[in-house]
Amino acid sequence: MSTLAQNKADLERASTAQKVADMLRERVLLGELEPGLRLSEEAIGGALGVSRNTLREAFRLLTRDRILVHEHSRGVFVRRPTGEDVRDLYAARRVIECGALRLWNDVSDAQREAVRAPVRQAVARAEKNDFSRTGSANIQFHRGIVGLAGSARLSDESDRLFAELMLAFRVAHEVEAFHQTYLPWNRKIVELLNNGTVEQAVQQLDEYFDAAEQDLVSRLVAD
Amino acid sequence: MSTLAQNKADLERASTAQKVADMLRERVLLGELEPGLRLSEEAIGGALGVSRNTLREAFRLLTRDRILVHEHSRGVFVRRPTGEDVRDLYAARRVIECGALRLWNDVSDAQREAVRAPVRQAVARAEKNDFSRTGSANIQFHRGIVGLAGSARLSDESDRLFAELMLAFRVAHEVEAFHQTYLPWNRKIVELLNNGTVEQAVQQLDEYFDAAEQDLVSRLVAD
DNA sequence: GATTGTGGGATTGTTGAACGATTCTACGAT
DNA sequence: ATCGTAGAATCGTTCAACAATCCCACAATC
């Protein structure tokens, strides 16, 4: 009975701070609040009609998700990933996603399908010259890869990681267009997986990370 | 100039909430506050002489670290890991640590030494029948393995992971004695690494995880 | 006897105001 | 141009209050 679980999730969403945090997260990820911007407690709190204490609680939630950074007595800012952040990001992705991909032969069909499907969709869209959601398709592909590990905490951590990566894309002024470059890579990886050559797929993924990291770092504007 | 960086870290530690959180974390990890216990805002805040708002901020910090769990309108509780939590914990460790260990030949000597040293110390202590800090030595070993990845975010996430594991040990009524069983395994892994047979070391680590997970889950008392 | 209302009491969620501490800004001195 | 300083703006923390929610015990019902 999935409806009950869904209802429970809705009920738990009662917290005001949670709602404020969700709204702010969306605003940041959509680019309405750009990296480096300072979020004034008074201004935001006043505009949203919540008290400072509640707003600060929302800030804390987003700080945990690395969406915001907190500087003592200075306030909170939209995170602005540096080159070093991107390097760290990809070092983590290499370990997590390559490690997860190596489990390909040990996981359920549903898990494998979660990797294949996003690429299939992206290919279908690309053939119709529809590049609208190519970015989220790419992320879905990698989210599927992480899912092979079968660890909720790892998937959650990866979601935070992808969110931070989005911020880096924004700093690099590359949001949607950026991803579609890597569709051929994803196709190749799935192809290698279907052929049963898992280790080659892992190597391909590793090379993808090399290219993506270098590309992103080079486009990162210092300020 | 490491002293400057250290001073900076000290200065940034000014926040009251941070200090309260550190104190509570230590209390929990030392076992003075056992898993499942509810932490009353009034009681704790009164005892520590901080306001409810500040205490709630400390609670948020510890919730992010998975030390505490927050239930809406019910309060915060010391996390009490379930069997499913432990399973998830080890699924994550398998991917992260095995993936990191495979980088053995690509990392600096200092990073490799951070893996070897804890085992050497543990062996030296064991030969003197000193099993005092065998638990932290084991954790240092695995922390070193994660460090091979060279990602601060991965190391941080692993620290949170180890903290949660500590809580699981406590639920299983196995804190210090638990670890020393696995010293031989660690020795074997380092030995295989020194022989240059990295892939065998990874396999050995994987088997260690199987054994440790099974052992811990079986000792976990339901309630 | 087991289940289902129904209170009151305790605790959390949220707000608003207040004040000291820290940072930022702009202006003027050297 | 650099430095120092005063004032403004903002953050950190506390306090008090009230609404919302949960918990527990007791009564009502079948």
UniProtKB/TrEMBL annotation, chains A, B:
Organism name: Lentzea albidocapillata subsp. violacea
Please list the GO terms describing molecular function: DNA binding; DNA-binding transcription factor activity
The entry's keywords = DNA-binding, Transcription, Transcription regulation
| Boundaries of every HTH gntR-type domain copy | 14-81
Pfam families linked: FCD, GntR
Read off the lineage from the record.
Bacteria, Bacillati, Actinomycetota, Actinomycetes, Pseudonocardiales
What's the protein name? DNA-binding transcriptional regulator, GntR family
